[in-house]
Amino acid sequence: MIAYEPPHRLVLSWNPTREQDRPRTEVEVTFTDEGGKTLVELEHRGWERLGEHASEARQGYADGWKSVLEGYAEKASE
User: Fold this and answer.
1) Does residue 11 contact residue 31 with C-beta atoms inside 8 Å?
2) Which of 51, 45, 42 is nearest to 19 (CA)?
3) Cβ neighbours of residue 9 under 8 Å, at least 6 residues apart?
4) Angle (nearest 5°) at CA 69 between 43 and 53
5) CA–CA separation, 71 vs 69, rounded Å?
6) CB-side exposure of 75: number of CA atoms within 13 Å?
7) Which tens digit of pLDDT belongs to each residue from 43-65?
């Protein structure tokens, strides 16, 4: 974990591949109170650390994070 500042944000080191020896990216999740509701924003950065594999890995996560966040939103609204 890089930063943990409840209830506002969380930043963690993330391995976007199955290969353990690859460089890691960073995922930052922020939580903002918006009048009784919480805005959750996710930024996944540091792709340039992956060199020639950056574009392929980033595209996979562009699709993947969307479904993860949609599932989170569904559970949060129950």
Assistant:
1) no
2) 51
3) 3, 28, 29, 30, 31
4) 50
5) 5
6) 6
7) 999 999 999 989 988 988 888 88
